[in-house]
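Hi all, long-time lurker, first post. I run a small reading group and we've been trying to get comfortable going from sequence to structure in the token notation. Rather than ask abstract questions, I figured I'd post a concrete chain and ask someone more experienced to write out its structure so we can walk through it together at our next meeting. Sequence below, copied exactly:
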Amino acid sequence: MRQGSLFDLEAEPSLAPLAPRRTQLGHGAW
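-- Answer (accepted) --
Happy to help. Here is the structure in token form:
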């Protein structure tokens, strides 16, 4: 599941501002 969070950050840095929103999807695993 950690792969999802790392993938989003490395794959599309532009999603950084959306991080708080994606926390429920990928970062939530953390």
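A couple of things your group might point at:
DSSP finds two helices and no strands in the chain.
The two ends are 8 Å apart (CA to CA).
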